[in-house]
Structure formats: structure tokens, C-alpha cells
Amino acid sequence: xxxxxxxxxxxxxxxxxxxxxxxxxxxxxxxxxxxxxxxxxxxxxxxxxxxxxxxxxxxxxxxxxxxxxxxxxxxxxxxxxxxxxxxxxxxxxxxxxxxxxxxxxxxxxxxxxxxxxxxxxxxxxxxxxxxxxxxxxxxxxxxxxxxxxxxxxxxxxxxxxxxxxxxxxxxxxxxxxxxxxxxxxxxxxxxxxxxxxxxxxxxxxxxxxxxxxxxxxxxxxxxxxxxxxxxxxxxxxxxxxxxxxxxxxxxxxxxxxxxxxxxxxxxxxxxxxxxxxxxxxxxxxxxxxxxxxxxxxxxxxxxxxxxxxxxxxxxxxxxxxxxxxxxxxxxxxxxxxxxxxxxxxxxxxxxxxxxxxxxxxxxxxxxxxxxxxxxxxxxxxxxxxxxxxxxxxxxxxxxxxxxxxxxxxxxxxxxxxxxxxxxxxxxxxxxxxxxxxxxxxxxxxxxxxxxxxxxxxxxxxxxxxxxxxxxxxxxxxxxxxxxxxxxxxxxxxxxxxxxxxxxxxxxxxxxxxxxxxxxxxxxxxxxxxxxxxxxxxxxxxxxxxxxxxxxxxxxxxxxxxxxxxxxxxxxxxxxxxxxxxxxxxxxxxxxxxxxxxxxxxxxxxxxxxxxxxxxxxxxxxxxxxxxxxxxxxxxxxxxxxxxxxxxxxxxxxxxxxxxxxxxxxxxxxxxxxxxxxxxxxxxxxxxxxxxxxxxxxxxxxxxxxxxxxxxxxxxxxxxxxxxxxxxxxxxxxxxxxxxxxxxxxxxxxxxxxxxxxxx
Length: 759
Description:
Elements: H1 2-13, H2 18-33, E1 37-44, E2 49-56, E3 67-68, H3 73-81, E4 85-87, E5 109-117, E6 120-129, H4 137-160, E7 176-179, E8 181-184, E9 187-194, H5 212-236, H6 243-255, H7 261-270, H8 275-292, H9 296-316, E10 330-334, H10 339-344, E11 350-355, H11 363-371, E12 375-377, E13 391-395, E14 400-403, H12 407-427, E15 445-449, H13 453-460, E16 466-470, H14 472-476, H15 484-498, E17 503-506, H16 533-538, H17 540-553, E18 560-564, H18 570-589, E19 599-603, H19 606-610, H20 612-618, E20 621-625, H21 626-634, H22 652-667, E21 672-675, H23 682-691, E22 695-698, H24 703-710, H25 715-725, H26 731-744, H27 752-757
Parallel strand pairs: 9-10, 10-11, 11-12, 15-16, 15-22, 16-17, 17-18, 18-19, 19-20, 20-21, 21-22
Antiparallel strand pairs: 1-2, 1-6, 2-3, 4-5, 5-6, 7-14, 8-12, 9-13, 13-14
Helix pairs in contact: 1-2, 1-4, 2-4, 5-6, 5-7, 5-9, 7-8, 8-9, 15-17, 17-18, 23-24, 23-25
């Protein structure tokens, strides 16, 4: 059965369209199960009827004509119950119905399995036999597996708009929605351009050669060609990226060095293997090695090696990158987007990015955020090879992509994009104005930074300080741990750029979905594993070097604040404080006179919420990491598309936890800020201000929107609204009540995501 299944799956995947795929499935399933009839019924959502779309054994003329409502027949029963139905004698069942037009004989045994995609029944797969018999568990499991396979095929057909006219009047499903992982916020409407790998390494055969020198010369030319391409792409992106981001291209150049991939391939060529075969051999080994490590960040390195291998192969085959035509609004789609692909698109035409593989932690996602391009990663269900040239909408904030969007949806998103544009222009006027409510409450707005490009963006938008500087970013785009001197230079740049305003530097926060290629962490459950302060306390040498670099960088500026991530109890905090004081003593002994900076703790796991008072007594300030706190309170991995819709920072449990933190921190006389996506949501910011947070920290793009919103409300009004929402136990009702309240205040225009939420 397994072999049969594998063969059917391969055959289905290579089918040219849905009709062919359905034809293959009914034929092969009928053969494999030795039954007389196999049929597929698909649900036409317009008429809410199951329509016969493919059959082996029934009258072919009835395809597209025979249909039944969900409350009719055994097919309808399978669809409504959403579970398999196995009957020895179907005619005995009260729901049995005979359709004469199918030309079917009276079949006794019946086995039907629902076809479900993303919790939605899309059809039913049925087998029938004349003789009475009960299908066994193995047969039932086989049919269920086939229906799961079919669900993917139908989703693909929806995406490409190839499902047309299920019923006689049915206009068919044209629009499809795919859920991935947010990579970079914002919305984009444009045309998909699929960038397939320039050459396929997997199909390169082995070949013995006699003229080794000629082959080496060929390979050398290919390397030089790719080197030149990389330098050209780096130069092309120079206007859009700062040196720190452009360093990603240096990684590629380093891989081509004689000491790296280049020398390994040369060695294989010298054994008598032709250059293409040697390239495939070495690249495959490296890729397998990376992929076996089961680590998110290392998997991204595998994609870099693959991309390099393909480019080298393209040169070896003398086949340059296919000459793609880029429309005015290009949405770049690929199985695995790489930084180099971004440079292929002419400047000014790239409006969105979609990657089937990868996470919000991929190099591409980092670059996309730096360049302000809406991006969705991890879109595993998207049939990327088939979407070239179709209309597409990218919602980078929610991690959603719409293919073949309806006119209504397109219009709505175009309005959101335009609104964002106008908003940005209009909000520029607010830059030098303070964030003060109508009744005079002053609310400091800070920014989250990581890349050097964020500095200029933050200053342009009037940030009053840095609430979170992610120190892991320089570590992530390096190939080794940066030295104390290198870190000092990076931190000094941040501190000097914002001086005299405060800059809150979080100590190295890796683990979970953030890992370093040169320091792999392999765990079954990384979010509950070795991450944040746990890593740095186990490696005091990393922590001490980083703290010393921070302290030295603040000399003469004195605007540094140090923030400790992932603290779960006072014992960890005591240990970290001891190390910070040790580093401070060492720096002073070396003659650098810096005062002890304020030290803060991140409240991002439930244990810290309940120990807020105890932690507050030991530090100078607190900062809530709303992203992780929401994730841990709701037990939702926000990088997992299957459960991403359960992740909601307006969940009553999250709101209650936040209130607790503010109350307990203030009881100890300590200020508390919040840095996370929530603080950058203008509507949520109203509630956070009402709770009593002393400052909000967000990405620079959202800062003007939040400032505009808070300048339009009264603190007293916001507190009334909060009190009202705290009595509600349902997150959806909280969302809609908040939107309604803002609408009644005439403020709904400033909350563009609400436009889409209503869909």
C-alpha cells in the first residue's frame, strides 16, 4: 500500500491541472482497492452542493451534472459529519439515495472520506462495490490518506484559479488565501513573479573526464563570474542597505574562497569528476549536513549554499539567469528567497516578497524589514511554480497571501496601501511634536532597533529613545562571535546616534527561533529550551565580553540602559547582576570611567508576571516583551502557521497579565515599558496607556501612527474604555468593541488593519 500511495502521490503532483489530478486519483484508487467505483465530489460553495467531478465506474456524462445538498445522500452525510463512513450495505442506511442519472447499478458496500483543507470540507472521496463487505482499517486509512493528498491539490487549484464552474451556474472559486509567517509588516498589491532556481543541481549526472586542467579552468571562470555577480548585486543594493546589511553578500563571497567550497570542489575535480558533478557532490553534502541539524537558522544557511551552487551551475552550463520581465508592481515569489534575488529586481518595482520556506528569522526577512518591503515567509501550501503572472496580495503584518483576489479585496487592499502612503506623508508633520493626549498626559514613544538602517528611520520619525536594541542582530549576520572591539564599535554607533536620549540594549537573546550558524542549538522544543539569559549565564565569557563592550561604548555618553531577557526568577537575575558588576569593575580598572547604567528585566514569561514585585525590587526598570509573553500565556508558537490565528495580544489573559505587571511594578516605585508588536498597534496603544505603562517601544514605521492616535484621545476616556473591555471574556469581542469605540471617536481611519480584519 505504501508504495502504491507513493506512486499515486508522484503522479498526482505532476498532473497538469485539477481535472487530470482527479482523473488519476479515481483511476488509481479504484485499481489499488479493487473496487468497481471510485468518485470525487467537490463542494461548490456558491450553491452549497457536492458536485460529481470525477469518476471511474459511473456514467462519465453525469460529471458536473449530478450534485447533492449536504443534507442529501451518503456523500452529504460524510461531508457534514467530517469523518469517514464505512457501510457493508449502503441501501440499509436511512440517508441512502439512488441517483439514476449516474447510470450506477445498485452497489452494496460504501466507503467515503471527507476532503478537508484548513478545517474546511472541500469535497468527498468515495469507493463502492457490488458485493456486501466491510472495508478493513487499512483500506479506510488508505482512503483517508488519499483524501488528505487531494485537499492539497484542490488548494493549489484554488490558488491558481483553475477551479471553474463546479455546477452549471457556479462561477467557481477564484480567490484563495494562504497563511504563512509574517516576515516584514505592510501590505502590497501586485503581480507575482516566480523566481525559479537558475539551474537544477539534483539532476546533474556523474561524468569522468581526462582533461582535468581544462575542467579546473572552467570552474575557475564560473567562480569569477559568480563573484562578479555578487559584487554587482551588492553595489546595486548599496543605496538601499547600510554596510551591516550588505555584509550578507560578503558571506557568499567567503563561501567561494579557496579555503571554503571552492577548494573542496577543486579537490573532487582532480579525482577525474567533471566540474558540474563535483559541484553537485560538494553542495549536496553541505546542504544535507545543514538540513540534518534541524535548526531554523542553520536551515537558512543551507538555502545560501544551494543558491550559490545553482549560480555556479548556471555559469558552468552557460545558462544565465532567465530573463525575467518585472512588472511595475512586482511581488517576488520563490521556494527559497535569498538575499541575492532581491538585487535582481529593478529598483523601485519590488513591492512585496513571498517565500515558501524560511521563517521571520531568515536573512531575507531581516533585509526585507530593513528595506521596508512587506514579506510573508513559510508559505508551505502555496503552489509557487504555478502562480507566475497572477494577481496577488501580500499582507506582511498578518502573514497572509491572497491569490487571484476579487475586485472588492483588491480595492480594499489598494486603499490600505494608499492610506499607508498618505498616512506616512501626513504624519511627517508630527515628528517634532510631543506625544500628549487631549487632557495633557505625556506618553514617551521609543523605538525598537537592530539594524543600522533603523537609526535613520527612527530619528526621521521622532523617536524619544530606544526601548529595545536587539544586540543579537550583529551576531546573526556574522560568521563567528564578534570580538569586544567589534561589538564596542557597533554599540557606540547606536549610543552616539541617539545621544542624549536613552538606548536600552538587550543582552544577547538567542535560542527559540533565533540561532547562530556558528553556535547551533538543537532542541526538540526550542521555545521552552535553552534561550535568552539561560544561554548567556551558561556562557559567562560571552555575557562578560558583551557587557564590557556596552559599558565602554557608553563612555562620555552615559545614555546606556541594559535589559536582561527571559528572566524566570530572582536566582537568574542575581547571577546576571553579579556578572554585570564584575564587568563594570573590570572596565573601571582598565581606566574607563563609566557610571553603572540602569539595569532592567524583561517580563516575557508567566513566571516573571507573578514575580514582578520581587524582580522590581532588584532592578531600575521593567520592560514587557509582549510577543513572547502572549506566546507563552496562550501556548502558541507564532511561527507556526497552523496555530498563528490563536496568537492574539488582546486575549483577556494577556490584558490581565499586563495590568498585573504595571500595578506591581508601580507599587515598588519602578517604571515599566512595553516593547513588542502590541505597542506598535495604535488601537492597542490606547489600552496600554490606560493601563499606566510609562513608555511604549515599537518599530519606527508604526511610531507616527501611534503618536497620532494618542494625541486624539483623552487619558480618562481611554481608562473608561479599558475598564469596559476588561469585563469581556472573548478576544474577538474585545477586537470589535475596541474598533467600534475608536470609530465612535472618529478614529477608525488610523487603524488600517481593521479594514482587512472585517473580511
